[in-house]
Amino acid sequence: MSKILPVASLAALVFIAGCKTGYNRTYSRAKDPNPPPCAEEASNPNLTAEGRRVFKMLAGLTCSEIAFDGYVMGQNAGFGNQIATESGDRSYTRLIDGVDEATTHTPGLVAIDYEHDKIFTLEELKDANEKLKAHWDEGGLVSISWMPLNPWGSDTLLHTDDVDLEALLDDSTEIHDEWRERLDVIADALKDLKDAGVPVLWRPLPEMNRDTFWWGTAASHITGSASDASLYTDLWEDMYEYFKSKGLDNLLWVYSPGESKSGTPGPTGKSATWAYPGVKFVDVVAGIARNDALDIPDYQALIDLKHPFGMAEYSPLHADMGGTFSGTNKKFNARLYVDRLSGSYRAAGFWVSWHSFDTPTTENEDLRSHLALIDSDRLKDLIDTDTILSIERIKEKKLLD
Description:
By secondary structure, the protein is of the alpha/beta class. The protein has one domain (4-396): TIM Barrel (Alpha-Beta Barrel), CATH 3.20.20. 31% of the residues lie in helices and 14% in strands. It contains 12 helices and 13 strands. The strands form 3 sheets. Strands 3, 4, 5, 6, 7, 8, 9, 10 and 13 form a 9-stranded parallel beta sheet that branches. The chain has a two-stranded antiparallel sheet with strand order 1-2. The chain has a two-stranded antiparallel ribbon with strand order 11-12.
């Protein structure tokens, strides 16, 4: 089991490692006078050298008082191979290159989901991988989520009455074999990235503390006790060990719960830490917050888990949920990201803005949520802040060296 590193020890580690990591090489301003402690090392002792570099960088941004004062700017680019289209709404060209063209800075992190909308083929996922490889080669970070469609054939992400998480782990069942086949495709896609030397912030089965998705609280039979999440954590641990057995040593495992409604369990959910699998199976903690003020209600609970910390989905509210950044209004103030993070959430090492998308309603068929960085106002003001870590600043500060 990984040890928890006290703040003083981590500071000493980062200082000693300065010649190799770059943490101490170009910047000395303290990010946080009281940073949270982090796990001393990643969960997998065989993690690739590239993965270790990413882990140390994020640990330095979250947990060290002498690390670079900064926040890696990230952008979600949709699902499957949508990132690989030439001119699509969720393409790398529009969402990543577009920011570079507008500001001369490229988002430091690019994120996609390997499923969500449909089950993509291995060839389609490899198409997406080409964009992810190029981003890593340019000096950026890569994050991949996996929100798989319901294995019981319902072609939905939502919970249904026939969901049985225990059966997925029972090798005498047909559904177990089908689940393994789907895991094998995902593993092959991740291996394609490993073979190219790309480490991945791997974020499977997020928002597990809500009852919305098939792997969520309803499937774990919530009763109010801490053991309620055992079916979910068993599923997580099984995937962790299965992928490890396949040699996928390029993964940093990201625990990513949904908002728990002002930091307390809501009527359809549990606390943000309810299904935490433990330090042996988690490397990074990444929250989710969708609101126009960019509040992070679960911030303290998440950093108390003692891992490098960021925000996996961090954007204003969707238009169909009452968000105001819709229609022809594209004036979400991107500068708010740095104001909120540096003002209230300094332990965050990165955030990922969601992509823009159409959100039609009966009253307004043309309604659209403008959530992507490229669609926001004052983007140049955001990036002109030297604490915002683009690819260019990551390389300038040698944070991955």
